[in-house]
Amino acid sequence: MIVLNTHTIITEQFPNKETKVKDFDSYILKDNFLQFTYQEDGDLIKLLFVKKRLEQEQVNCRLVINYMPYSRMDRKIDGDLFTLQYICEFINDLNFEKVYVVEPHSTKTTEMLHHCEAIYPALDWLPSIINKLQFTDSDRIVFPDKGAASRYENAGYANSCVFDKTRNPQTGRIENMILKQGDIPQGAKCIIVDDLCSAGGTFLWAGQILKQMGASEVYLLVTHCEPRALSGKLLDQDSPIDKVFTSTSMMHETHPKIEYITINLENYV
Length: 269
Prior knowledge:
- The chain is an alpha/beta fold.
- The protein folds into two domains: 2-119, Rossmann fold; 122-262, Rossmann fold (3-Layer(aba) Sandwich).
- It is built from six helices and 15 strands.
- It has helices at 42-56, 83-93, 107-112, 121-132, 146-151, 201-212; strands spanning 2-4, 7-8, 11-13, 19-21, 31-36, 60-65, 98-102, 116-119, 140-143, 160-167, 174-181, 189-197, 217-225, 243-246, 258-260.
- The strands form three sheets. It has a seven-stranded mixed beta sheet, sandwiched between helices. It has a six-stranded mixed beta sheet with strand order 2-1-5-6-7-8. Strands 3-4 form a two-stranded antiparallel sheet.
- The radius of gyration is 20 Å and the shape is elongated.
């Protein structure tokens, strides 16, 4: 989905699968603000068409990427292409005045995108969630791996814990997780904080360990949540995760264990 200056761009598809983008002349301003939500590869072609139309008018345009596509393919792995590099080059070639990325999965995105700035709304959501859950000094913020700990190292919360996980290099499946830093007091409430949830395997592991160590309630705060989470075990009634706080950057489906939080982009751009 592409939103230009608060107006959703209308697209259709011809029978042969080519994309038709309806003209949006009345939406164009001197300084434009484009929001891009990736759902499939065809959305990148729509972004190309919209930006080229704006170039015809010789106007300025800033881009907000709600979720950076291919962000997990952020390094060269034997047998796979380094596809994040190609997507960043594609966006760079569109010559946006400024690019904002909501919760990039790694620093590779901001390193490779020109005129790029990262936005981390999860850190801004934490205080209100902590207040809502009535946190005390016995409760804990939990980072599921060293990547998350590094990403949110400036969160400013002293009572935090960090997990260390081991994956099978061939299958990518988690083989082991241990609490590497911090402690879990009996009866503690815990909020696991990360940028992205897919099927939720990492958070199931972490949640089970936290409950076994004595946590009374375990919550998950992720900026991006894929629809895959709806078909996995993360949201089951007997899951160790009591509730998921997330944005609508990747899905909008209603579920009793999901609470959506709005990203107010005007606070960042």
